[in-house]
Amino acid sequence: MIRPKPKEAKSVVTILEPAAYDRLVKVVLRLRTPEQQDLPLGGYRQLQLYAYEWLSHLGVLSDDKIRWLLGEVDTDLKVLGQTLDNHFDDGVTKLPPFQIVVTDGRYATWTNRTCFSDMQDECSVSEMPGPGCTHVIADMVPIFAKKQAWLVRLRRGTDASGHQHHAGGPANAGPGRQEQDPAGRPPDSDG
Fold it and tell me: If 180 and its partner were Cys, which of 14, 61, 93, 133 is the partner (CB 3.0–4.6 Å)?
């Protein structure tokens, strides 16, 4: 498993503007000093980045609501992060599934959770007031795996199609230069 430093991870979190990414590293990951920002990111910290990016991409939650929700799911992200740290190289199919579901842009739940987080009122509720109409699901293990594959390609200097690039080319273009969706698919990927 690749454990990128925050500066390298920035190249696969392309939905966020550079200033928003830097704020995410300082506020959500709590890596405030240059020394902290020079440490490799394990599975947990990477999951925080990728979950934040996905939630931000939805466009229905403010930065404050995203941070609140990440606080709610934090314990489970830590457990999944430890599992990824210890078993990611065993193969993605051997890892437990972990999904985050946002319903109607207001309620969230995730794997193994028996209630909902009401993001509007910032509280837990045992059930929603009625059936949900829209459900958006992020499957975090495949998102993590796709980001890992992209990091491998970037380190090799190749793009999604395996084409070699030289310094300054698309594979080294940096954050915000390459378009990508929050599921971790770089441009021209088959996923």
Answer: 14
H helix intervals, the chain: 6-9, 18-27, 43-58, 63-87, 140-156
CB 98 within 8 A of CB 140: yes
What does the H/E/C string look like for 11-36? Answer: HHCCCCCHHHHHHHHHHCCCCCCCCH
In 96-164, where do the E strands start and end? 99-103, 107-110, 116-118, 123-125, 135-139
pLDDT digits (tens, 9 = 90+) for 90-108: 887 888 899 999 999 999 9
Kindly provide the b/e burial profile for residues 84-114, where b requires at least 16 CB atoms within 10 angstroms of the residue's own CB: beeebeeeeeebeebebbbbebbbbbbbeee
Do the beta carbons of residue 54 and residue 138 sit within 8 Å? yes
The residue ranges of every structural domain in the chain are 6-95+141-172
State how far the Cα of 137 lies from the Cα of 21, in Å rounded to an integer.
22
